[in-house]
# Entry
Amino acid sequence: MKRFLPAVITSAIVILLIVVYFYSSIFITIMAGEAGVLYRRFAGGTVTDRVYKEGFHVIFPWNSMTIYNTRVQQRSHSLSVLTEEGLKIQLEISIRYYPEADAIGLLHQKVGPDYLEKIVIPEVDHTLRVFVGKNAVNDVYTSKGASLHNIIVEAESEVEKNYIVIQDVILQQVILPKQVEAAIEAKIEQKQLSEAYQYRLTRETQEAERKKIEAEGINEYNAIINQSLNKDILKWKGIQATQALAESDNAKVVVIGNGGDQLPIILGGQSGQ
# Structure
């Protein structure tokens, strides 16, 4: 037994050195939000029917593991496009995307880790160029910052064939030639001024109509009062007022008949005299 001990020790040391040297190729840790694809060098190549989930894995050193980020990712991108009028503008966009976790093996086999540059960006660019080419520059400019739903639908239908999902496409900025941007802003400002002026006209018209209705109401009221007050009623009201004044404790009055149908004349009026 002692005769084989040196050979055993030597073999153990060699194996240990091999393990240390190939440690990163043998022991694989897949972090949260990731998935792995195994490539078997001597056993059929890419494994497409199994996805290696999060956790610790051990593989042979001659095989390799490619790890994919399966979380939603975002990529800013800019491109130049032509509008319906043939005007060249620059678009600043943001793409949100992620690979289908259960189809990572097929994605790796058919496209590879650089699927963003190969599939996602070219497809979004193509769809954007078609969209902008069918619209006037003013329509594109005023949609700045909006989520372009039709672009998402069209682009997603193409990239899904390669096991990728486009979650959103955001048009962040539209960069126009300075003279065109100034003309569009002036047009928008004039439109706003016109709407404000029209609002003031409507408000003044409504106020004039209100005053007209109010005046008509006052005229009708006065007409009704004039019809209800005849000469005898006015004379009777005058007599009642004169009588109340004559009976007042605060004044002594002298009443002299005025004759005819006229009301009495009241003289004096100072108390204590």
Notes: DSSP finds eight helices and ten strands in the chain.
